[in-house]
């Protein structure tokens, strides 16, 4: 067991399903929250190990559907099952439609020290198209309440590349977000699976098709504006003030060890990847019988896949892959092993390299998947 691990807790409940949602979340099971929390507590006990936790992340779903007392109780159990570092980053994802000043002050008091607000847009028509439960006014109020409650480590999530969203619309949302001077910004291009409601509505002609050129220009605009405002672009979709990177997510991208607790939560510890069942009933039932939940994934990562994942995760970070560190770790000269792919990507202008590192170019960040698949083991 590694000395240090990150802890992810999945809270799979939402008030209403957003029209683009691909996460494991249920909008008709909020009555099961108390039983779910009992199951979570039991899973912490069963997975208790002698490792220090340096980051805790409540993700979802909508973790802000849990009361401050429920969050406090969960943190107390975690504290009994693991060693918690003094400066542990404790993040929660919150939906602006579920919080007010008192709630935010109470969860701060409970020990949460980083708040990630799923605002997505400051445009009411876009929020309605996405099926979000909050308005732009509520989004602004949530940020102001968060500051008043004492949160000094705040992330704002926005989505771009929406059907019919032009450059001006995106520019307006971005500027409204920037006016709040959050420490961190996560900007995601909308991705849709065919079965999602918004994809069906686009197919039926209710909304325009998404225009790839507009999406690319929106990304470039964000890059420029956030840079001007002093944010550092540190991962394909993430910007922060210097020193305010999300420590928890860096564990994923830097291939650290993490333990996921809750329905569908993934873990990666000592080259073993596993994932709990995504079936809420099976999850609660197993833990109520004092058993670990069924696993949907349980695999040892083989060396070829480990190298491929290391390259892909390294390229997601704007600092890229350090060539010497890579050779020391894997005993491989990356230029010899992957020379063909690297030459091709250099010619396409999707990556750049010098003596020290290989990293994505701004164009490569836009077309990351075009880069990543070339490093998968069956493509070598
Ligand atoms: S709030 Fe998040 S998890 Fe819940 S339905 Fe919307 S996108 Fe999905």
Overall description:
This protein has 380 residues and is α/β, with parallel strands linked by helices. It folds into two domains: 4-252, Aldolase class I (TIM Barrel, Alpha-Beta Barrel), CATH 3.20.20; 303-379, Arc Repressor Mutant, subunit A (Orthogonal Bundle). Helix content is 41%, strand content 22%. The protein is built from 16 helices and 15 strands. It has helices at 33-46, 68-81, 101-110, 124-130, 136-148, 167-178, 197-203, 212-228, 247-253, 280-288, 303-316, 323-330, 334-337, 339-348, 362-366, 368-372, and strands spanning 4-11, 52-60, 83-94, 114-120, 154-160, 184-189, 232-235, 238-240, 258-261, 266-269, 272-276, 295-300, 321-322, 351-353, 357-360. It has a nine-stranded mixed β-sheet, with helices on both faces. A three-stranded antiparallel β-sheet has the order 10-11-12, with no helix packed on it. It has a three-stranded antiparallel β-sheet with strand order 13-15-14. Helix 1 (33-46) packs parallel to helix 2 (68-81), helix 1 (33-46) packs across helix 10 and helix 2 (68-81) runs parallel beside helix 3. The two termini are 32 Å apart. The model has no long low-confidence stretch (mean pLDDT 96). The site of iron/sulfur cluster (SF4) has 11 residues, from loops.
